[in-house]
Amino acid sequence: MKKQLSVLAAAAALALAGCSSVSIEQPSSATSPSADTELLTDNGLDGLDAEQVIDQLDRTPVEERATDLMASIRADELLLSDGQQEVALPLPEDRFYISIAPFVDQTHECFYHSLTTCTGELSAEDVQVTIVDDAGEVLVEETTTTYDNGFVGFWLPRDVDGTIRVSYDGRAGEVDFTTTDDGATCVTSLQLA
Question: The pTM is what?
């Protein structure tokens, strides 16, 4: 009973933390290896590492997203929960995933990107993205298309600060970022004007 309550509490915290400005700290307590496999298998993620799971879920069309799966990207791990079980997959030690939802008119507050519930305003739109660290090194410079969920994600080096610039349809905007342990994995404050 205690274990069930612990898993349910963790799932609730996970649900509240996705697409939220609130930073909820919780211990990483994955269930048994067989439960891990079951949760991943049930969601078509068996055999995938955290990077592959993130890529697959972020690119899943909104109408095809699993309604009972929560997936939240933290600085060092990907937390997955179905309300009954929780799995924590480690992220690479040298890279940090940051998901960006540029917007013109509407946005939402977010700190940890939720791969299953976050949606942005600009779905399937071509955007020019430039990410530069504070030392002036260009980390990303490309034209890309936002996913169906209105986000676009990038793997960046850990422990850097810098600026994200996005331009779209004659509009542009920029916002600062950090890839330190207390950095946000969800950027929803980049307004295009």
Answer: 0.82
* DSSP run (H or E) holding 54: helix 50-59
CA distance 7 to 36: 13
What are the b/e assignments for 15-47, b being 16+ CB within 10 Å?
Answer: bebbbbeeebeeeeebbeeeebebbbeebebee
Phi, psi of 174 (to 5 degrees): -150, 160
> 95-187 has which fold?
Immunoglobulin-like (2.60.40)
- Residue 153 to residue 73: CA distance in whole angstroms: 11
* Residue ranges of the chain assigned to CATH 2.60.40.3700: 95-187
The 10s digit of each residue's pLDDT in 43-68 is 999 999 999 999 999 999 999 998 89
Structure tokens at 192: 């295009």
